[in-house]
């Protein structure tokens, strides 16, 4: 496993995650019961009469699955995935029971810190795709990434 430091990253780099997450109906409902108890996430009949037309996972469930996929895929960032906030978070399509999710990453910006020379910020676009290669979540986040230690 390769660890990526700030110095290893450059705008324009692309990474395709190899991890997959299958979304089951019972998991959609369990997440919704605890964190987003709206009828279209909990009940198939209520979901049919909603904007979604059928059961849909909470966007926050999609975000949690995306985080898991990020932890399980390359690049492995030195120091872990340490968020410093999002510039963008969208859910262009709902996640449905049976969907299989994966992530693709694009490095947008790399900025060494002026006040903390041992680290910097990486702006990263993360696209979560379903099995049809349709984006179900797109986020642009800022991560704190350590610089490579001096030898």
TrEMBL record:
One Pfam family, short name please?
MaoC_dehydratas
The source organism is Pseudomonas straminea
Q: What is this protein called?
A: Acyl dehydratase
Give the PANTHER family listed for this entry: BETA-METHYLMALYL-COA DEHYDRATASE, MONOAMINE OXIDASE-RELATED
UniProt cross-references to InterPro entries, sorted A to Z:
HotDog_dom_sf, MaoC-like_dom, MCH/BMMD
| Ranges of residues in domain MaoC-like | 10-122
Instruction: Tell me the superkingdom of the source.
Output: Bacteria
